[in-house]
Specification:
Length: about 350
């Protein structure tokens, strides 16, 4: 019995990867598929960076094709990352396909550490990545990425080239002011500075721009949500009830302005004490919050000395210990967030949100 292309496509569409949530054909992931003799030649293009899962996916699909159709599978798996802006009325920014906002309701939960490692994890998965440090009052990314003493160059006297750090493009107000220079600015000046950092940086065709927001739900968050084509937000929290209380406010703020929340990262979830785990800040808070709001728990990260040391040294965990369990957790978080953008962000009708001056 001969095997048709339709038979091959049926097998491919029957495979529902958990990060995609639908068959590969239905997801538009099949770039080409043909049967040539006793071989199935398939080119798959996923909508998110996927270096960490390609081999396993190829092995699984190859076995299914061989078992069900009796063909030898010749598979090529790559990524084609499209632009997904939540607000359809906002124009994409030059050189940027997608924007991921990393937010927290309160300070001290490790948001900037997560943002840096998330950006590096997306790059490790095969994406072109930028990182914008939007914390104007307390920029930390230059120090965390080991480029604190760098200064941006300009191609034309008007715009700035981003700083290259560990394979990603970085911009921060920290590159333009001294470490001990306070930014004594009111809200409008801060939002203007954010706009300049974002729009006057020459981003070089990044698939994802990760924006490290300051904690809270103030001017910068609202400006980003209302005027910039954000693809989705990641909420960082610890399991502690006080942190979760503020994280819920951040989540609700993004929902109010119709920016999809890609999921929650629970940081400092436990501390390994050798033979057991100590849940210093409580247990399961991130999972309960995710279930409460019907969103995904993107991942959990431990409280460890190594993460702090690596950030202080300017070499975040994904770079300093790429094979470690923690680095792999960051990469899984990156894949899940990017897959949410590609396949899991629902369309919406966006209301006009008015912020009064009172």
């Amino acid at each position: 019995m001969s095997v048709s292309r339709e038979n091959l496509l049926a097998v491919l569409d029957a495979h529902v990867h958990p990060l995609i949530g639908r068959g590969l054909v239905a997801a538009g992931a099949i770039a080409s598929a043909e049967v040539v003799g006793d071989a199935a030649r398939v080119v798959i293009e996923l909508g998110f960076p996927s270096a960490g899962i390609r081999d396993a996916l190829a092995q699984t699909l190859g076995a299914q094709i061989n078992e069900q159709l009796g063909l030898v599978a010749e598979l090529s798996i790559g990524s084609r990352i499209a632009s997904h802006a939540a607000r359809k009325n906002l124009e994409p920014l030059p050189g940027i396909r997608n924007i991921i906002a990393v937010a927290s309701g309160k300070g001290g939960v490790g948001k900037s550490t997560v943002a840096a490692n998330l950006a590096l994890a997306l790059a490790a998965e095969g994406a072109r990545v930028g990182l914008l440090d939007a914390d104007i009052y307390g920029p930390s990314q230059p120090r965390m990425l080991g480029v604190a003493n760098f200064k941006p160059t300009s191609p034309d006297g008007k715009r700035m080239n981003p700083i290259a750090a560990h394979g990603i493009q970085v911009m921060s107000i920290g590159f333009l002011v001294g470490d001990d220079q306070p930014m004594i600015w009111r809200g409008p000046m801060v939002t203007q500075a954010l706009g300049q950092l974002l729009n006057e940086t020459v981003w070089d065709e990044v698939d994802y721009l990760v924006v490290d927001l300051p904690p809270g739900t103030g001017d910068i968050q609202l400006t980003l949500a209302q005027k910039i084509p954000v693809s989705g937000a990641v909420i960082v929290t610890t399991p502690q009830e006080i942190a979760l209380l503020d994280a819920r406010k951040g989540l609700q703020m993004f929902r109010r302005v119709e920016v999809p929340v890609l999921g929650i990262v629970e940081n400092m979830a436990w501390y390994d004490c050798g033979d057991h785990r100590d849940y210093i800040f409580g247990e399961g808070g991130g999972a309960r919050m995710a279930a409460q709001y019907g969103i995904e728990l993107l991942g959990q990260l431990p409280l460890t000395t190594s993460i702090r040391q690596q950030m202080d040294d300017g070499r975040p965990t994904v770079i300093a210990a790429p094979e470690s369990d923690i680095a792999q957790r960051y990469r899984e978080i990156a894949r899940r967030a990017a897959a949410q953008i590609a396949y899991g962000v629902p369309g919406a009708v966006f209301p006009t949100i008015e912020i009064s001056d009172d």
